[in-house]
Write a structure and sequence with these properties.
Layout lengths: L6 E3 L2 E3 L5 E6 L4 E8 L3 H19 L3 H17 L2 H11 L3 H24 L5 E4 L12 E7 L3 E4 L13 H8 L4 E4 L5 H17 L7 E4 L4 H9 L5 E5 L2 H12 L7 E4 L5 E4 L1 H20 L11 E5 L2 H15 L4 E2 L3 H16 L4 E5 L6 E2 L2 E6 H6 L11 E7 L2 H10 L3 E7 L5 H14 E6 L38 E7 L18 E4 L2 E4 L1
Parallel strand pairs: 5-22, 7-8, 7-10, 8-9, 10-11, 12-13, 12-19, 13-18, 17-18, 19-20
Antiparallel strand pairs: 1-2, 3-4, 5-6, 6-21, 14-16, 15-17, 22-23
Helix pairs in contact: 2-4, 2-6, 3-4, 3-6, 4-5, 7-8, 9-10, 13-14
Pfam families: Aldedh (PF00171)
Protein name: Aldehyde dehydrogenase (NADP(+))
InterPro entries: Ald_DH/histidinol_DH (IPR016161), Ald_DH_C (IPR016163), Ald_DH_N (IPR016162), Aldehyde_DH_dom (IPR015590), Aldehyde_DH_Superfamily (IPR050740), ALDH_KGSADH (IPR044151)
Length: 522
């Protein structure tokens, strides 16, 4: 398949009219053809209007037909073969094994949502039958969930497949019956076009309205703001920086009709090293921590950027072993020059901070990221908010506390996080119990004796958390729960059987339903 540099609007390839951008090979420091032009306001409007026109038809599809559409997208992605794998590697410098694994995850989550649609619980059907003899009488009431409407999705920089064109936000929005207008990420535009063409092909194969999916190309904040402001857009899915996410939140809130923005933004994912675990296995924990920190050159939203532990010789054992594992680490190409530049600035700021000591700092190189480990006191961390800022890359800060009470004090002051990890043994149960209520308020996923990198795509997963890890801590962007972001409830009162949606009829298609408040399976 030839990459043309086109946007894809309503099933057709179109050229943007604005500023151009080319992909960049970070490993070779070379630009890659072709040029992708930025779409203009009229092209954004066309994509959004076509999505709006497609909405009622698309959401009215049976669960099985929409599930088949998701599966067809996965089949078309796989049909791209090595063309896709090689383009991703070229645009990101990610190794083949990582790219192939991410492709599998992308196809897997499309299948996950297809299975959810066929299983049917997502409708959240509720029946409260009429009670005409009651005083006052109760009407017949039935409820189901429906899609919100067209969704604007912003592809992420660090996952060119799994959080991009056909990634989790797109999969969950399409599963909900919502057309998607997607802004491709400028760091991997060729990858985005290839996957975008696979989605368009699936739309054609399944005989769906062309406006079900459009891909917009280009650079500049105005493109994203224009998309979010469009009146046809009813929700936003975003993975990226805190600044970018908050700009979209502000634009969405300022609309005449505000809309929700589900933005995954910033997290430093604290790891608590509890005393007994540290005494028993400090070196083993350090080895696992170093591997987690450097996975993917640290360019993962669940990277362990903060370690908290009680002062003493066991913590010294951990920091010595972790430093030895990290200091010899090679500088590796990061996903883009922008990410590499931000990482270098963050590392330099910590290295020069008056209340921070450098434990390990591997030789840095332009455009690359090398491991870095720092240490500071709990008192400094509590008084210096800058020490809580995320450094997107293989860098972490160890915060030394006096006792469990100070560990809890630091936990109380943390911002919202995607994850928190408890490294604990049997003797740490009391300390863990004291931290757990705080962590439940602060994070979306709590781990014991593991590492936060690696997000399982399954029904129980929560990849979200309180602000600023996400803009709405009630939701997740991974797992079947992600579909709820793009749904809303509708209640039908005293409608005849002929007017009711099929899933709400007396002998309807609901697989699961709540009848008089009791959950049953048909």
């Amino acid at each position: 398949m030839i990459i043309t540099g086109d946007a894809l609007i309503g099933g057709k390839a179109v050229k943007g009219t604005g500023a151009g951008v080319r992909a960049y090979n970070p490993a070779l420091s070379q630009v890659i053809e072709p040029e992708f032009r930025t779409v203009d306001a009229s092209q954004i409007d066309q994509a959004c209007r076509l999505a709006d026109e497609a909405f009622d038809t698309f959401r009215a599809l049976s669960d099985d037909k929409r599930a088949a559409f998701l599966e067809t997208i996965g089949e078309q992605i796989m049909a791209l073969g090595d063309v896709l794998i090689e383009r991703v590697m070229e645009e990101t410098s990610l190794p083949r094994a990582r790219v192939e694994g991410e492709r599998g995850r992308t196809v897997g989550q499309l299948k996950l949502f297809a299975n959810l649609l066929r299983e049917g619980s997502w409708h959240d059907v509720r029946f409260d039958k009429a009670l005409p003899d009651r005083t006052p009488p109760r009407p017949d009431l039935r409820m189901r969930m429906i899609g919100l409407g067209p969704v604007a999705v912003f592809a992420a920089s660090n996952f060119p497949l799994a959080f991009s064109v056909a990634g989790g936000d797109t999969a969950s929005a399409l599963a909900a019956g919502c057309p998607v207008v997607l802004k491709a990420h400028f760091a991997h535009p060729g990858t985005s076009e290839l996957v975008g063409r696979a989605v368009v092909k699936a739309v054609e194969i399944c005989g769906l309205p062309a406006g079900v999916f459009s891909l917009l190309t280009g650079v500049g904040n105005e493109l994203g703001i224009e998309l979010v402001r469009h009146p046809a857009i009813k929700a936003v899915g975003f993975t990226g920086s805190r600044g970018g996410g908050m700009a979209l939140v502000a634009a969405a809130a300022a609309r005449p009709v505000p809309i929700p923005v589900y933005a995954e933004m910033s997290s430093i994912n604290p790891v608590f090293l509890l005393p007994q675990a540290l005494k028993n296995r400090a070196e083993d924990i350090a080895t696992g921590f170093a591997a987690s920190l450097t996975m993917g050159v640290g360019q993962l939203c669940t990277n362990p950027g903060l370690v908290l532990a009680i002062d003493g010789p066991d913590l010294q054992r951990f920091t010595t072993a972790a430093s030895q594992a990290l200091v010899g680490g090679a500088a590796c190409s990061m996903l883009s020059p922008g990410i590499a530049g931000n990482f270098a600035r963050g590392v330099n700021q910590l290295a020069e901070h008056a209340e921070v000591t450098t434990l390990a700092l591997a030789p840095q190189a332009e455009g690359k990221g090398a491991p870095a480990l720092f240490v500071s006191s709990a008192a400094s961390f509590l008084s210096q908010h800058a020490l809580q800022e995320e450094i997107f890359g293989p860098a972490s800060l160890v915060v030394v506390c006096k006792d469990v009470a100070e560990l809890r004090q630091v936990a109380e002051k943390l911002e919202g996080q995607l994850t928190a990890t408890l490294m604990m043994d049997e003797g740490d149960l009391e300390a863990a119990q004291s931290l757990l209520p705080v962590l439940e308020r602060k994070v979306g996923r709590i781990l014991a004796n593991g590492y936060p990198t690696g997000v399982e795509v399954c029904s129980a997963m929560v990849h979200g958390g309180p602000f600023p890890s996400t803009s709405d801590g009630r939701t997740t962007s991974v797992g079947t729960g992600a579909i709820t972001r793009f749904l809303r409830p509708v209640c039908y009162q005293n409608l005849s059987q002929g007017l009711l949606p099929e899933v709400l009829r007396d002998n309807g298609t609901a697989t699961w339903l709540r009848r008089e408040g009791e959950l049953t399976r048909n």
